[in-house]
């Protein structure tokens, strides 16, 4: 993943809220800049309306694409990788040829390392979460793990009806139906009242959000006073003081990767931190975890080359995550990150 800064950021509201983030994104084509002349007010308004309509249609198409991507692909992923649809956390230079169970353990380790980074431990005087929301929950792996770990109530939201149905079925099968529930909802317009959750969790979903400011606004809105907000998301590198944009080859590689995942509007960790700081949150922190997640995608691609992986991919004849895990460009990000991050 070139130019991807796999990050973790902790944040806190004025009564302590924290967050964690690693991220990556895709750029939608926008309408041309509108210039309204002094004598063309009506024409200018029509053009502005057209731009707004285009943006609205793009947002609808993006959400539809994301939902279809995960409707089609979640079963494939679960069949090979289990409950957790996110990177694993590894010691640097880990051998990627370790077994699938070892990689699944690395995914659980990712959750635990994120909690550690955010300052949530099981040791007093830490206040353990009791009500949490999983924004972009996938098939609910993080929600069920956290609900079980802390005895908490968890609510998860996803754009994919298939994921929501499967997440609820797994919660019931694991005896967590009374603690974990899942529904179809938009992360940019969450169906929850203000201040409902003491843990707001977003594990690798921020990269799908076309409006990062609105995304952060919603995370902060549903966080209770003293809550912890955790964002784990894909980021491109921070720009240098003299740079206004990424290099053409960097943007080209990001576009190709993101086109496989319906990812809009890449931004940097610094961009996220500015958004978080605008809410006067406390204890904001960020960290680059690229070296710790780099072994994951080569392992995913290796799994696609097994007989089980091949037959699963063959069944997914539409555009899906199968296209991505079978695409060697995915490996380029972590491998090139340090070369490009100047």
TrEMBL record:
Annotated region described as SAM motif I, given as residue ranges: 132-141
One MF annotation (Gene Ontology) recorded for this entry: S-adenosylmethionine-dependent methyltransferase activity
Swiss-Prot/TrEMBL GO biological process terms: methylation
Domain Methyltransferase type positions: 133-231
InterPro entries given in the database record: Methyltransf_11, PiNMT-like, SAM-dependent_MTases_sf
Region feature (SAM motif II): 195-203
Region of interest called Disordered, as start-end residue ranges on this chain: 322-342
Keyword set, alphabetical order: Methyltransferase, S-adenosyl-L-methionine, Transferase
Cross-referenced Pfam families: Methyltransf_11
PROSITE patterns cross-referenced by the UniProt entry: SAM_GTMT
Domain of life, per lineage: Eukaryota
Composition bias, Basic and acidic residues: 326-342
Stretches the record annotates as SAM motif III: 222-231
Family of the protein in this entry: Belongs to the class I-like SAM-binding methyltransferase superfamily. gTMT family.
Protein's name in the database: Methyltransferase type 11 domain-containing protein
Species lineage: Eukaryota, Viridiplantae, Streptophyta, Embryophyta, Tracheophyta
């Amino acid at each position: 993943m070139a130019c991807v800064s796999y990050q973790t950021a902790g944040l806190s509201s004025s009564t302590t809220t924290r967050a964690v983030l690693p991220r990556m994104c895709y750029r939608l084509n926008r309408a041309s800049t509108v210039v309204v002349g002094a004598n063309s007010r009506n024409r200018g308004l029509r053009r502005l309306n057209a731009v707004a309509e285009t943006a609205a249609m793009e947002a609808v198409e993006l959400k539809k694409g994301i939902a279809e991507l995960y409707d089609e692909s979640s079963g494939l992923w679960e069949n090979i990788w289990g409950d957790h649809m996110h990177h694993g956390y590894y010691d640097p230079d880990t051998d990627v040829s370790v077994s699938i169970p070892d990689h699944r353990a690395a995914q659980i380790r990712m959750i635990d390392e994120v909690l550690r980074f955010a300052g949530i431990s099981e040791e007093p005087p830490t206040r353990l979460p009791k009500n949490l929301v999983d924004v972009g929950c996938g098939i609910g792996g993080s929600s069920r793990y956290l609900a079980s770990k802390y005895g908490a109530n968890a609510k998860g939201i996803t754009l994919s009806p298939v994921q929501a149905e499967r997440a609820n079925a797994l919660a019931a099968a694991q005896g967590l139906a009374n603690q974990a529930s899942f529904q179809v909802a938009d992360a940019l317009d969450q169906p929850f009242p203000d201040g409902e959750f003491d843990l707001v969790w977003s594990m690798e979903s921020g990269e799908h959000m076309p409006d990062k400011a609105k995304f952060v606004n919603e995370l902060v809105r549903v966080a209770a006073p003293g809550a912890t907000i955790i964002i784990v998301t894909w980021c491109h590198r921070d720009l240098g003081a003299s740079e206004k944009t990424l290099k053409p080859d960097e943007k080209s590689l990001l576009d190709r990767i993101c086109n496989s995942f319906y990812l809009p509007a890449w931004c940097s960790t610094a961009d996220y931190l500015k958004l978080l700081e605008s809410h006067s949150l406390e204890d904001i922190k960020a960290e680059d975890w690229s070296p710790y997640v780099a072994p994951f995608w080569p392992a995913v691609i290796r799994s696609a080359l097994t007989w089980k992986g091949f037959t699963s991919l063959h069944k997914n004849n539409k555009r899906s995550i199968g296209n991505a895990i079978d695409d060697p460009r995915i490996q380029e990000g972590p491998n090139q990150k340090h070369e490009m991050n100047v």
